[in-house]
Structures are given as C-alpha cells and as structure tokens.
Amino acid sequence: MDRIEALARPDKWYLGGLDGVVWAPPFPRWLHRPGFWDPAHLLQYEAGPIFSVALQGSAGAEIPFSPGPAGLRWRPGTLAAEWRTGEGGRAVETRQVLPGGILESAWALPPEAAVGFLVAFTAQPAASVSGLQPSSEGVRWVRDLVDRAGQKLPVGMEIRGSGAPAWRRILPSEGGAWPDWTASPFAEGGTADASGIPEPANGRSGWIWIAVAFPVPDPGQGSFSLRMHLDPRLSERPWRGSSAPANQLSWESFFAGFPAFTCGDPRLDRTFDYRIYGLGLNRIEGRSGNVRHPCIAEGIEYFHVPITYSAQCHMMEMRWRAGGREAWGSLLNFLDNQKDDGSFHGRLYPNHLERTDFYHANWGDALLAVHAMHPEPAALARCYDGLSRYARWLNRSRDPEGSGMFTVVNHFETGQEYMSRYMAVDPEADVRGWQPRLRLKGIDVTVYAHQLFRALAGLAGRVGRTGDASDWETLERRCAAAITERMWCPEARLFTDVDGKTFERTGVKAAVGFYPMLTGLVDAVRLDALMDHLENPRTFGTPFPLPSSSVDDPRFSAEGVWRGKRRNCPWNGRVWPMTTSHLIEGLLRGWRRGNRRAGELAADRLIRFVHLMFTDGDPRRPNAFEHYNPYTGRACHFRGIDDYQHSWVLDLLARGIAGLHFDEEGVEVRPLPHELPRVRLGPVRARGRRVAVELDEGRVSLAVDGTRYEGPRERALRVEWETLDGRGEGRRR
C-alpha cells in the first residue's frame, strides 16, 4: 500500500480494473463533473457516456456540486474528488474501476445532505440500446458497441447502487447529452417510477435518459456507492466465475507480486513502481473470447488489446511478477489464434479477427526470458510447436530466395512507419498504407528471425524434438552470415537494410541498425563503431536516447514532422521507448560478454532514458508516452496516449541497475558499472525460490531462500541451482 500511495498525484485520472476495462479518456471533457461521463473502454470497445451523479434534497430540488479546494487526488486504482454542497458542506467522491466490469462512484456525504436522494443518471444513444427494463437494483439494458473494424459487441449495462432504489425514471429525448442534471429531461419534476419503456417516437433517434435514485444514508453509515456494470456478451466472459472478492485481483495484490526496487535516484525508484501501475492498468484477465489467457494490452483506447509488437515487451516485464501468468499468456494468446499458414494476427479482438494486421516481434528472446524465470514444460512445448510453425512461415514467405534476410512488405508491419529506410526502396512507401508492395530486407526483422532460430535450436531437445535442431541451426547460421556479411555498411559504420530487388545495402542510418548487438555476432571493431555513433551528436548522440533516425538523415525531425505534417506516429527522429529498450538491451548483453565500454554506455543511456519519461522533468510526474523529442525530452502530449506499454523499462532496471539475471543453470548478479552506491531489489519469486539483491559501494549480496552469498561488486556473483539444492557455496566469477 505504501508503494501505491507514493505514486499519488493531482494530475492523473486513468483507472483500471486489472481485467480489461479501463476509464482513461485521453482528453476528458467531464473530468470535473461527478461520476464517469467520459467513455470507458472494454478492451478495444468504447462505451460512453457511463453515468454522472446528482444530489437532490427532500423537496426534489437539486443540491449542486461544486469543486472543493482539495480538487482531485489520484493513485493507482482510485481517483478521489472533493465537492462542496449547498451551504458549504463537504462531500468526498471516490471513483474506481473494480474487477468485473464495474465503474463505481462511492460517496461520503455531509450530515446536512442526509435527507434526500443520490441519483445516478446517464444518456444512451437510442439506436444502439435494446432490452431496457427496471431491475431489482436499478435499470438494465443491452447496448451494441462498435469498434474501429466496424464489428459489434453487445454489452449488458446496468445502473445500480449499494441499496434499494427509491425510484427510477426512463425517458427518450431529443437534443444533446451532458452530465448536468439541469439538462436532463428529469430536472422539471415528475416522480412516477418507471414500470415500462415507451417506444420512442420517430424511430430510434436521439437519446434514452435513465435515472436511478437512492436514499441518502444516515450519517455514520459509511459511504454509499453508485455503479455501472458492463457485461460483455461473449461466449466466454472475462469475469465469469470470479465474482467472489477472494478471487478478484486487487491493486494491492498486483503490486505485491512484484519485487520492490530502490537505488537512491528518485526518478528510477518511482519509474519502477509506476511501471507496475502501467502494466496493471493495461492488464487483461483473459477468458474473453479469443483472448483466453491473462496478458497485457499495449495501451489505452483502441490499443487496449493484445498486440504482437508489444507482446515481446510484456513478456520481458511480466516475468518479474510471481507466477509469470501474464508473461506466458502474452504469447499463448497469439498461438491459440494462429493462422493456418503459421503467421500471427497483429492484434487480437475478443469477438472477431477482422482487420488485425501483422507486426514482427522478437519472439525467441522473449520466450527464453520467460522460461528462465518461470519454467512451465507444457507451455514451453506449446510455444515451441507454435513458433516452429511461425518460423517456417517466416522463412517460406519472407525469404523465398534463401538469402538469410527477411522481407518487410509495408512500413507499418515493423511498428515503425514514416522513415527514410522505406523510401530508399520505394518513393511511395509512406502513402500506400498496408499494401504489401515493399521488398525491403529489414535488419530488425532479420535479427528477430536469427534470435528465433537460435531459440528453437536450443529448445528442440528440451521438448522432445531433437531432430529439429539441425534445421534450425542451419537457418541460424545462414541468417548470421547475412547479418555480418551483407547487412553491415562500412560507409555508414552501421548495420542497414538491404534492397530486396537489387540486394544492395540501402545505407540508411536508423536505430534498428543497432539491433544486431542482441545477437552476439558483432565483433569488437564493429561494436566500437556502433558505440561511436551513440556518442556522436551528428548521428545518434542526442541528449535523450535514442533517435529513431540519424540526425544527419535528410528527413530527420525531432518534432515528428514528415512531409510538412506532424504525424501521430513518426519514426524520422523521435525517441521511441521500444527502440531505446532494444539499444540498452544490446549494450547490456555486450557488457555481460565482457565489453566495459558497452556497460558504461548502457548504464548512462538507461538512466538518461528513465529521466526522459517525466513531465517537465518533475520527479513526481512520471509518464510513458509513445514517443519523445530527443533534444528537449518533451512527450507527444498532443496524442494523449500515456501509459503506453511498448518497452521493458522495469526489466532493464532489474537486470541493469540491480544486476539480477536468471537462467536455467542458476542466478547471477552483475550490475552495470553505474555509480549508484546503494541498490535493493526483492523479493523476486521465480523458479519456486525467493531471491533478493543488495548492492553497496564495494560489495554485492545475493540471498536465495534465506541463504546469503556475498562478494566484491566489480565481480559477478553466481549461484548454481544444483549448488543450492546440495546446500553448497555459491561460486564467484
């Protein structure tokens, strides 16, 4: 609870139920009105208005609410608002999104308001509402929601309270819909209880207004709750069977599943727990039609679904939560819906698979990372089989020439649109949308393929597919040769894409040119060349790492302007946390292979990267936007998409700053060469054990199930699992 309270602030409002329902309007119009008039999202489906709240005196007149001096106070899970009522009375409203699709407005009212009614009211578009009827607790109806693909989802909706209703009113109306009781058709009086629903005149146009009133409880009886319940009509409903409070995940229990982290840098410390909040906000419980396993959505609004491009990040981060269910689920969901040809849907929707697109991802590294901390033999076998099918599709459809390099067919499927790298092979690449017209052998996609082949080769024997290993090793070697011999550009001193028609290197300097550092294939000379770029302000050495395109690219723009227009998702110079995570991951691996300079750069870039993600540099205001200015650090506030989960910051802090690494043989502490004198991480629950790390100025301490091992900070401290089982001493190297 202390960790949650420490994140409290007055300038946020996003709320989530840890199951797929969020109330996170990017630009709320009605934040300073009681209740939830701005829309919520049930996965990618927008539902709004939800409801607002009015207070009526015993004579039926409204007692208006006005904002109190305390304003709003947000923390993960709740948004508290202070209101003034009547002659200066003070009311406190606490908004929450509870597990089970419940949006709750809970009230503590002043004594003078004890005689009267608390009214929840809403307006629903008449054309999408059916089955409207009074219920024992309020009023219920069914509303058809429509997503960006034009697909409908019927959702049961009900307004109810924590007591019996005093009265209900329902009336179709022309005009607009605002969260103001005086604008409702009920403000002029009329107290008849709704016993039936009249058929609206002139068809199904306009709005249906609904109000449910509850007697204000006597003082001393505690708060009173008004609720909207959203119940998706899916064959497998996300919260069926989980209505008992003991089975519901709370924000406290979600946070408790992660280790605590401190290092003395207030921004790094706050980012670690803020990241846990962001993962919880975007958590999906599973059991939602096509989304069967718990996982993490990429972000809010229409991003609130599993997406392949970010799933690799969620696997890296959610493995630090005890059990690793969401980490495994982030891949298993896509395997459950794998296409007949072996490819994946780019997005998963609960009730359809239309317009799902496609994105590449580093599945091999993500799978090995999850398996290292949470081995699950059945899940591993399932993932091996599915990724084998995917790898064969990738090899068959994207490298029919057998070049060892893999084709990008449009500028969206890499997740990185509007870049010179595509224009080098097609001058209309940026205006042809998702058309499969490109023939670009992508360095990023080729690295992903190499890591996948390597992972499958190493796992084949573990899942009883020993005969597959040689095939995967052959593909891995061919891919490795292509990366080192054909995709290194001496002129650019960077790895670059290759034109799929001419098989000539494009020479375009982009952030993906650093991705081969993930593979271990980069020799010392080339690694130094890559690191030179990171320190060169004329290419990639900007104050905040890492610009998505080189500063000397003719289309570079720190402000995200492409062809004279500011784009929503430009990759011609903005800092994207996804690519920066790849860079730091590559440097971290270089450090672990013995390169001191890589370690120093990794530590520096990681700290600068985390410091970037604070609004106005204020350590009390962390954020996680899609992209940032590489010089000023300003985020894309104009997009409004905060808490966007397409990087693995939490994982990099745990392995880079605290230095904790797991593998199948043991656990190791080897922090980056940073100057933070005192670091604490733990307890980490993985592989059935509890692990904690402490770093002091000259010493490192590793505790495994209560047994402590120590050594000098400048040397790796490693403990083998079999050594622990034999109660022996850990070894240092």
Brief digest:
The chain is α+β, with helices and mostly antiparallel strands and 733 residues long. 24% of the residues lie in helices and 24% in strands. 51% of the residues are buried.
Distinctive features:
733 residues; alpha+beta; 8-stranded antiparallel sheet; 5-stranded antiparallel sheet; 34 strands; 24% helix; disordered C terminus
**What is the subunit arrangement here?**
single chain
| Counted beta strands | 34
Rg (CA only): 27 Å
Q: Strand order of the main beta sheet, please?
A: 6-7-8-9-16-13-12-11
Largest sheet: 8 strands, antiparallel
Based on secondary structure, the structural category is alpha+beta
- Provide the low-confidence segments as ranges: 242-246, 728-733
Q: Could you say which overall geometry the principal axes of the C-alpha atoms support?
A: globular
Number of helices: 15
The averaged pLDDT comes out at: 93
From the N-terminal CA to the C-terminal CA, the straight-line distance is 39 Å
Task: Tell me the strand percentage band.
Answer: 15-25%
Helix content: 10-25%
Describe the structure.
The chain has 733 residues and is of the alpha+beta class. It is 24% helix and 24% strand. It is built from 15 helices and 34 strands. The protein has an eight-stranded antiparallel sheet, with no helix packed on it. The chain has a five-stranded antiparallel sheet with strand order 17-29-30-31-32, with helices on one face. Strand 12 (138-146) and strand 13 form a beta hairpin. Helix 5 packs across helix 7 (377-398) and helix 9 (443-459) packs antiparallel against helix 10 (469-486). It is globular, with a radius of gyration of 27 Å.
